[in-house]
Design a protein that fits this description.
2 copies of one chain form a homodimer. The first copy, chain A, is mainly α and 200 residues long. Chain A has 9 helices and no strands. Chain B binds a DNA duplex (30 and 30 nucleotides) through α1, α2 and α3.
DNA sequence: TGATAAGCGGAACATGGTTCCGTATATCGC
DNA sequence: GCGATATACGGAACCATGTTCCGCTTATCA
């Protein structure tokens, strides 16, 4: 029904460049300082003025949500690429680490999600809608190849890794990585190909 | 083991008065504007300077936690008073409304709890440690008197009312009150004294 | 290649947390 | 009661950060 009012001029090239630069900078800054990072910091890193930032993202929540969606897209898209480049179980392992890395950059987002800001409401659904099929395809291929057990649910795994990643502590990152490796080993041990040796 | 270093002078009377005034003002302002209310607002309402506020509560979280504990104490303490003044089921009903009123003043606190600030970590335990025994005593007395059913768990009720109270919407307060009344009626209908008529 | 709309940068403003310090006063020994 | 003095007070000032505004710059188009 709706028709774009045909614009006389196309969007300026620098505007496009800047939008991208802002998103990239925001991604980096959020990862480093959490989603409460100051807007000036992001503008500085992006090499633009704060005015430019605010013109495109009228408030913080818009920016946060955009960055989040962009990262979800990138991470989910990688599943297909990995499947092309590696044997299924290796692709799966690499992707899970990639996913864990994604989660590691989400400092403070969990709290923001509960802030009630309407810009965040659709994010959990977006998260699941993208990651669940991505992981499911990896699991399916690896299970078909007999490289991992075949009774794993994508959503369960996504949640489990999310939980592992939130366990803070001194060296949370290293801890989470060890636990993830354990999980992956467990997936492989249960594979049909390697028999049913499930002692200890 | 530790011994207070015996102070030469006692705490000044005005300091005591001001601490109380700040807590009272903070309670009112938090209820009205949420826990993110500006410190100046609180100082103004308390009739003190911000300096006074900050001397006693070095940061916001300290103040929020103190107000919260004070309100929990007051609400929990009321259970005993109500039991003295009313017949058990009425005391219970009044207290549940009192508890709902307490919850209604907690705008934004839920989010703050998840903020990771260490000053908040002990609050949930404090909440439960005070409210569960208070409500349990009310339930027990009313059940003994045969005025309500006897299969109610204090913690379940606390949670249920908490959930009812969070349901937002246009007139969240009125809605929550209606639901609470329904709940209370349900408790009474199940009483031994009134038979076992659990139709519709 | 000039006209012009689109876009830009960053100063300026608004808000709110926190600190600092000169002033006021409650307490205590006399 | 009466100073002396530690204690506490008030609020201006400072800093960080979100947000707006507008004069200047520049990509686009004819």
């Amino acid at each position: 029904m709706e028709q774009d009012t045909e614009p006389k001029r196309r969007v300026r090239a620098d505007a496009l460049r800047n939008e991208d630069a802002v998103l990239e900078a925001a991604k980096a800054v959020f990862a480093e300082m959490g989603v409460d990072a100051p807007a000036r910091e992001i503008a500085l890193k992006a090499g633009v003025g704060v005015g430019t930032l605010y013109r495109r993202f009228p408030n913080r929540a818009d920016l946060v949500a955009s960055v989040f969606r962009r990262e979800v897209d990138a991470c989910a898209a990688e599943a297909a690429k990995l499947l092309d480049a590696y044997k299924p179980a290796d692709a799966l392992e690499r992707w899970l680490h990639r996913y864990a890395a994604f989660l590691a950059t989400k400092k403070g987002l969990a709290a923001a999600l509960h802030s009630g800001d309407s810009a965040f409401e659709t994010l959990p659904a977006y998260f699941r809608a993208n990651f669940e099929p991505a992981l499911a395809s990896l699991l399916e291929r690896a299970a078909q190849a007999g490289e991992i057990r075949d009774d794993l649910q994508a959503y369960d795994l996504l949640r489990a890794i999310g939980n592992l990643s939130t366990a803070g502590g001194d060296d949370g990152a290293a801890h989470a990585r060890r636990m993830l490796d354990l999980l992956i080993d467990g997936m492989r041990r249960g594979a049909k190909a390697s028999g049913s040796q499930d002692a200890d």
